[in-house]
Amino acid sequence: MSDLGVFLGGEGANELGSYAGPRSYHDEEQPGVLTTLLRRVRPTGWHVVGATKWSRIRKLRARGPSPTEERNVRALILDAKEAKADVLAFTRDSDGDQTRERDIERTIFAHEAAKEPPHLIAAVAVPVLEAWLLALSGERGTEQLSKAAAQARFENEHHFGKATEMVVEYVKQADLTLVPDDAQGLARWLARADTVFAVAASASTDN
C-alpha cells in the first residue's frame, strides 16, 4: 500500500510550517500545527504533497450568490485534486464571524455528502488557532473567547505566540485526551482525522 497524499490549507506558518512559504522551502522536517496533529493521529502511512496559504487561495469565478468562504474551500479542494492528494486537511480561523464558520462547515458537509475525492479533515478554529492550543491543555470555554483574548491568554500562559517551532513542540507534547467537549471545532477536526485516515487507508488498500 502506498502512502496517502495529504494537501494542507491554513492561515499561515503556525498552521502550515514551512509549507506557508514558497514551494522551494517546503520541508516535512519543519511542520506546522496541522502536520503535527495529523502525526499525533496517524504517525505514518501518509506524506504532504502540497499546501495553500489561505491568503493565496485562487479566486474562483462565482456561480450565483455563493459565499466567499464556500468558494475558498472549493478552490482548496481543486488545489488538492490537482496535487493528486487523497486527503485535504485544513483549518480557518473564524475571527468571531459566525457566518464564516457556518459557510465553511456547510461546504464541508456538502463535499462529504457527494462522496467525491479528496477526503476532508477540516474544521473552523473558533475564534482562532490559539483557542485550539489552549484546549489542547484541557482548558474549557476557549470557543467563547474573543480573538484577542485567546491570543493574549495563550501567550501569557505559555510565553510564546507566533514562534512556530515552539508551538509545534507544544502540540507534540499535548495530551489529546484532555481536549474538552466544549472545544467543538478541535474535537471535530481530530475525529475527522481519525475517521478519514482509516477510510482512506482502506480505500487505498482495496485499489
Characterise the protein shown here:
There is one protein chain. This protein has 207 residues and is of the alpha/beta class. It has one domain (4-206). It contains eight helices and four strands. It has helices at residues 13-16, 33-41, 68-82, 98-114, 129-136, 147-158, 164-173, 184-206; strands spanning 4-10, 46-53, 87-93, 119-125. The chain has a four-stranded parallel sheet with strand order 2-1-3-4. Strand 3 (87-93), helix 4 and strand 4 form a beta-alpha-beta unit. Helix 2 (33-41) runs parallel beside helix 7 (164-173), helix 3 crosses helix 4 and helix 5 packs across helix 6 (147-158). The termini are close together. 42% of the residues are buried. The mean pLDDT is 92.
Question: Could you give a quick summary of the protein structure above?
Answer:
The protein has eight helices and four strands, in the order βααβαβαβαααα.
SSE blueprint:
Blueprint: E1 4-10, H1 13-16, H2 33-41, E2 46-53, H3 68-82, E3 87-93, H4 98-114, E4 119-125, H5 129-136, H6 147-158, H7 164-173, H8 184-206
Parallel strand pairs: 1-2, 1-3, 3-4
Helix pairs in contact: 2-7, 3-4, 5-6
Q: Any descriptors?
A:
4-stranded parallel beta sheet, 14% strand, alpha/beta
From the alpha carbons, calculate the radius of gyration and give it in angstroms. 16 Å
Give the uncertain stretches in residue-range form. none
How confident is the prediction overall: mean pLDDT? 92
| Percentage of β-strand residues | 5-15%
Largest sheet: number of strands, sense, barrel closure: 4 strands, parallel
Distance between the termini: 9 Å
Helix residue percentage: 40-55%
Given the structure, what is the number of helices? 8
Order of secondary-structure elements: EHHEHEHEHHHH
In terms of structural class, how would the helical and strand content be classed? alpha/beta
